[in-house]
Amino acid sequence: MRELLEQRVFPLLGNTAPDGGHDSFVFDVDGAKLAFTTDSHVVRPLFFPGGDIGSLAVNGTVNDLAMSGARPLYLSVALIIEEGFPIAQLERVMGSMKLAADQAGVSLSTGDTKVVDKGKGDGLFITTAGVGAIEHGLTIAPGSVRPGDGIILSGDLGRHGISIMAEREGLSFETTVESDCAPLNSPVAALLEAELEIHCLRDLTRGGLATALKEIAMDSGHDIQIRESDIRVGDAVRGACEMLGLDPFYVANEGRMVVILPGAQVETALEILRKFSPTGSPTAIGFVKEERNRRLSLEGSLGVVRVLDLLSGEQLPRIC
Amino acid sequence: MRELLEQRVFPLLGNTAPDGGHDSFVFDVDGAKLAFTTDSHVVRPLFFPGGDIGSLAVNGTVNDLAMSGARPLYLSVALIIEEGFPIAQLERVMGSMKLAADQAGVSLSTGDTKVVDKGKGDGLFITTAGVGAIEHGLTIAPGSVRPGDGIILSGDLGRHGISIMAEREGLSFETTVESDCAPLNSPVAALLEAELEIHCLRDLTRGGLATALKEIAMDSGHDIQIRESDIRVGDAVRGACEMLGLDPFYVANEGRMVVILPGAQVETALEILRKFSPTGSPTAIGFVKEERNRRLSLEGSLGVVRVLDLLSGEQLPRIC
Lengths: 320, 320
Prior knowledge:
- By secondary structure, chain A is an alpha+beta fold.
- The first copy, chain A, has helices at 2-9, 53-67, 87-104, 159-169, 185-193, 208-220, 235-244, 266-273; strands at residues 25-29, 32-41, 47-48, 51-52, 71-82, 107-116, 124-133, 149-153, 200-203, 224-227, 257-262, 283-288, 296-299, 305-308.
- The interface between A and B is large, with 72 and 72 residues.
């Protein structure tokens, strides 16, 4: 279906690219530079360890804005509620949206509510859009990536995807895996404030680390190499991935990002990122190469290098 | 359910008022004044005479921005598609969104697509958000309304609501009633360009003319009086309303507005509005009174004045 959408439907919208929300649209009004983005959230189940559809909807849009280097300012909230959805659950979700907005320092400023008949929805869908201000002169995009750039990963991998899957399939592990759902705007603001020359930012949502970096390699033209030993995956996530036959490098996250910037600035950036506990312990995981084959490669723990590609199979549906 | 939402759920969102999209949120960034709004669209059926969910979603957000006096610039488009929804229908809707955006002079600039399992949606839901620029010094809001202000209605009433209902219930009238779905930003821009002192604008969506004016009377504190003989209702709409027991003053529109401005400027405003055929023939329908009882009254054709109130019963669901 996605292929059909991409080939036959999206082109009709003109310059719209409903691409899963990786990129914000950037525009100028009266000299002010702004970013604008939207995402619908249809996650199932609505509540999961570490978050719910409300915190996910707020953080998702906050992070889309932050990844374009914008300071998130205002979010809109549009609810599609299935008739009969318990008010107590709605109150819980609204409370968690308010909390997430306060934590990210954004305002939920406008909204809409529609109710659909029973059987014509799935409890609750939430669409957020966001506006942010771009207050620096950098072009934060794959096109700015240069050979010699270092790549920082802001924390451990795979917690959101595994948390959703465990909840949905009724799996239980020794430790409960909590989603990493969190806002990334504060660490990005701190990196910008330190006047680091950020070349590219990308949050690791659907498709995980490997997909994000492969897309950056393709869009920038440059090869990227990462080291397996520097990429942190928690024991519980690793165990769950082994059991389920998943590769944690491709599992979804909702509070992790990669930062690409000149190699000489990597240490300073790591020091700054360490101050933001929600993003976990950051590590330098690789670098951008001179070669222009649009290739992403992984140096394994025994020194063997293999190529990583985009996932060809089905991804887990309704993870966000 | 709406009552429960208003009392127990919306307050949790803080300053968000998911009020059906009457008002845009207005903010400043670096001296630029902007408006921001969102609406989810769950109209059923998706296609109706005079429009479809796509044109409705674009015009609805364009009009929300225009009613705050903003020039609509950019729209986001978030689709929630039920698995198995025919691609041909999706192409048709996307085409009509593109056309509506071109007609309104706005850009569909960012988007997202989610697919939900069969039976967990209803074909297609579309959430649009919009950003516009406010380029004048007026405060266009009920609080600016003054005694002696004239009230202009931009065209005939009730076409959207009757068109949807006829399509949904399989009713047929002698003439097909086409929705009035249309963008209102060009006539608003022309009024602003003529430097008219617009006090308030409101598009007549859910709840129709009477609800819009009663809300303005309540929010401004002033009484409003309108004349039945100056309010145009087409014969087909009137006939359908009589058959269905509906009052056309309360039926939804999607391309009609009221303009409230000083009485001395009414004639100039009417001349300008007549140039915009999509809004139909505008008429001066009433005025704002000195009295501050927050009352809306209607002078009937025989000179009898009666009070109009908010609808107490159920409104037609899923009309937008």
